[in-house]
Amino acid sequence: xxxxxxxxxxxxxxxxxxxxxxxxxxxxxxxxxxxxxxxxxxxxxxxxxxxxxxxxxxxxxxxxxxxxxxxxxxxxxxxxxxxxxxxxxxxxxxxxxxxxxxxxxxxxxxxxxxxxxxxxxxxxxxxxxxxxxxxxxxxxxxxxxxxxxxxxxxxxxxxxxxxxxxxxxxxxxxxxxxxxxxxxxxxxxxxxxxxxxxxxxxxxxxxxxxxxxxxxxxxxxxxxxxxxxxxxxxxxxxxxxxxxxxxxxxxxxxxxxxxxxxxxxxxxxxxxxxxxxxxxxxxxxxxxxxxxxxxxxxxxxxxxxxxxxxxxxxxxxxxxxxxxxxxxxxxxxxxxxxxxxxxxxxxxxxxxxxxxxxxxxxxxxxxxxxxxxxxxxxxxxxxxxxxxxxxxxxxxxxxxxxxxxxxxxxxxxxxxxxxxxxxxxxxxxxxxx
Length: 433
Fold this sequence. Notes:
Blueprint: E1 2-3, H1 15-32, E2 37-53, H2 54-59, E3 63-64, E4 72-78, E5 81-86, E6 90-95, E7 103-109, E8 116-119, E9 122-127, E10 130-135, E11 143-148, E12 166-188, E13 191-196, E14 201-204, E15 217-218, E16 224-227, E17 230-234, E18 238-243, E19 251-257, E20 262-268, E21 271-276, E22 279-284, E23 292-298, E24 306-308, E25 312-317, E26 329-334, E27 342-348, E28 355-358, E29 361-365, E30 371-375, E31 383-388, E32 393-399, E33 402-407, E34 410-415, E35 423-429
Parallel strand pairs: 1-2
Antiparallel strand pairs: 2-12, 3-7, 4-5, 4-15, 5-6, 6-7, 8-9, 9-10, 10-11, 12-13, 13-14, 16-17, 17-18, 18-19, 20-21, 21-22, 22-23, 24-25, 25-26, 26-27, 28-29, 29-30, 30-31, 32-33, 33-34, 34-35
């Protein structure tokens, strides 16, 4: 009996021994009919999809009772509310009137959701391939006001999704043990293929905005940005523009091809700063319906969020599985000339993710190395103001003296109004059950 972990090898037999050995083997097989076989025990997690029709999904938009945060993605601030996307499922609504005591008041079901932005009382959110506009004038009673089909991901000639089409809205997760056994029937070089007793393959060892409009604030990892009466979204290679002059009736304007491996978008005044695995792009919004590229910079292939102020752009680069074999560092560019940004300084980091700016303070989520806060008065000589360890951090929004930080274990809020006494004031836990 062989187990899954054993190695299977071929033996070289000298010619003069082949005949005697063959006789012995034939005799042995005739007596016992012994076959080379295997037994394998594998521990796996099974995900069984739960589906509804598209019509049912659209009719099910309401504020449900609060649910625990399990796999949060993006964070977004709208007035006194903190919106947190639950990856592929919807948006948590947090009453953050008192940041020291945030209250989870409900959950909006939006299957396939990852990103969002707001203007006034309109919430713009992706639902699989659709853009939903949800009225959140009363956050406790949201309702769909508009749907634009077939924009995520965008491709020409896309057809509307039928209302009776099945949409995955959840998964039933179950840990289980799978035991397989059978005969080894094929050896192909270093690859060994096994078949179970029923003849099926078992496994293989192969390897800011217009006057009168109030916009929310997203983090540096966002793919949605709202300003100048427009909603801008980025995908893997393009920038899509929607006219949101009429809050509840966005209109698709166009999609521009801007590059490859596009990841993030950050609005600042009259410009968009777009991060990709290959570099940073700066776009001018003099004509918001047709943004113009002012410049681009390239760097080694790494994950790349960006934030900016009046004089500089700050870019974090990190390596990892999906970020290739890049570097882990902070890069600072002079944007005195938006058409020709100049790299000024690099600072080594551990595994930097999102970042945020507030005055002369730069907040960097350095992965498992926690949250780092720097004084950037002199960009050529950053001063570390505070290093908060013990957190695995992802993104940060510093606003009105409160830094909202998303991490592996929770959403943390820090009061930084006194930079010499930065303190944790609340935590929203993430459930691992």
